[in-house]
Amino acid sequence: YIIDPGRTGNNTDYLPLSKGNQPPQYHNPTINYPSIYSPTTKTIFNITWKNITDQIDKVFLEINLTGSFVNYTIQPTTIYAENTSYGFEMVLPAGTFAYRFLANTTANLWNQTNYNIITIQKATPSISLLLNDEASNKTITWLDSLTIKASESNYGDDDVSYCLYNSTSLIGCGSSFLIAYSNKSFANGTYVFVYNTTGGANWTSAQS
After folding, report:
1. Structure pTM?
2. What is the pLDDT of residues 87-137, one digit of tens each?
3. Cα angle value 80/84/89 (rounded, 5°)
4. 158, 173 in Cβ contact below 8 A?
5. Is the CB of residue 200 less than 8 Å from the CB of residue 159?
6. Any idea what DSSP says for residue 139?
7. % of the chain exceeding 90 in pLDDT
8. Closest Cα partner for 127 from 149, 148, 150?
9. Using one digit for the tens of pLDDT, what is the confidence trace for 51-98?
10. Looking at residue 155, what is its pLDDT?
């Protein structure tokens, strides 16, 4: 306020001082994300924006999932008289990412949060190798039968290969194997069967 704008000596005379158009103000930006990659667990972004002199026009989440920053439009979740809460959900890949929130008003005045960093670690694949239905070493004698079962139960792993080996010899690659050696004559010696993966964008290497 300006006191005594007419300089009359009347200090009870007030004139409102216009602040002009103001950008929106943010409150309580939060994120809830898994520390390890999960193809079924979404990362949840939330923020509240307050109108100062103009209505909120658009709200964005800016994040660099592939190296370049991309803006995602965020929709309101709860609307109040002077502020609105916004939320956004998505499954994030493994990696380290920078993100921030932005908003503008109907007068095209912008405000944004600082960049924050999150890191999601690669997940370890779930794989199984059974010899005669047991997950342990086996000793067989002449003409004993042997059944080998290998499998994986992972999702979001299109870039991951799973391969079965007999010692260093590749038997094949795939999501599951069922191989039965009936009365097979194995020569005397030790055979090491391994089912493994070298990993992918969201998965570590693993073997069984």
Report:
1. 0.81
2. 999 999 999 999 999 999 999 999 999 999 999 999 999 999 999 999 888
3. 135
4. no
5. yes
6. -
7. 62
8. 150
9. 877 888 999 999 999 889 999 999 999 988 788 999 999 999 999 999
10. 84
The per-residue DSSP string of 89-134 comes to EE---SEEEEEEEEEEETT--EEEPPPEEEEEBPBPP-EEEEETTB
Query: Which residues lie below 8 Å from residue 94, measured CB to CB, with a gap of 6+?
Result: 37, 120, 121, 122, 123, 201, 202, 203
Please work out, in degrees rounded to the nearest 5, the angle formed at the alpha carbon of residue 135 by the alpha carbons of 132 and 140: 40
Which residue's structure tokens are 């609307």? 79
The region of weakest confidence among 7-21, 35-49, 179-193 is 7-21
Give residue 3's pLDDT. 43
**Distance from C-alpha of 30 to C-alpha of 24, rounded to nearest angstrom:** 17
Helices (H) and strands (E) in the chain, counts: 0, 18
d(CA 47, CA 10): 46
∠ CA(104), CA(110), CA(115), 5° rounding? 105
* pLDDT band with cut points at 50, 70 and 90 for residue 38: very high
Listing DSSP states for 47-70 in one string gives EEEE-SSS-EEEEEEEE-TTSS-E
Rounded Cα distance between 47 and 30, Å, is 6
Residues recorded for the chain: 208
